[in-house]
């Protein structure tokens, strides 16, 4: 199997120089993700899920430890190199879509390709990606002319268009009603069946259960990691105990 990423003793500390502000959001975490896996990251608010996802997506750097992405240590890269690695390896899907409001659906999807000098027919690739998420008919529409679920599908097309090594999703169904959320989840699960590697932060345990593997974070550390059925059940049981 191809290893997409590997973390070894990775920590992320906010404000490491200022003791009274300092927060160890991710604390000596080690794990690996193989190509084709689908991994849910669960845990209580503030446990470090989004911070970890940002480090995985090269939006932020670890404070210490090792991060190998596509076999390459990214911890010491400069800003430009980091942006390049991100563009090649990572497709992001956020809760609030992050589409540019003045660009049409196809222009939004095309955007990550415009940073690549080597790609010629960016428009055709963007249209292909929109077709994959079932939105070929909406290519010229602005985000404001689309439903929430359609906007998230455009965002997924934008994440896919560069053929990244993995999709990183932070609460991708969090802003959607339950039926639309299920549609978006079905699309992600179809992409996973077609070979995509997915790492998803979610509060929704039924969403986490739909992925193969789950990682439970607590205070910046990994409390449990394994088949999603087992880990989600253990997490739910621990929280039921806390609540009672
Ligand atoms: N930019 C920042 N500066 C300082 N501390 C931060 C910053 N961003 C996050 N934190 C802190 O780091 C910890 C982890 O935050 P993070 O956003 O990763 O949690 P989370 O698990 O995603 O929570 P939620 O489920 O509420 O989204 C929290 O204690 C948070 O207050
Ligand atoms: Mg978060």
Automatic annotation (TrEMBL):
InterPro entries xref list: AAA+_ATPase, ABC_transporter-like_ATP-bd, ABC_transporter-like_CS, ABC_transpr_LolD-like, MacB-like_ATP-bd, P-loop_NTPase
Keyword Lipoprotein: no
One Pfam family, short name: ABC_tran
GO molecular function: ATP binding; ATP hydrolysis activity; transmembrane transporter activity
A GO CC annotation given for this chain: plasma membrane
Ranges for domain ABC transporter: 5-244
Keywords: ATP-binding, Nucleotide-binding, Transport
Family label: Belongs to the ABC transporter superfamily. Macrolide exporter (TC 3.A.1.122) family.
PANTHER family: ABC TRANSPORTER ABCH.1, IMPORT ATP-BINDING PROTEIN
Protein name: ATP-binding protein of ABC transporter
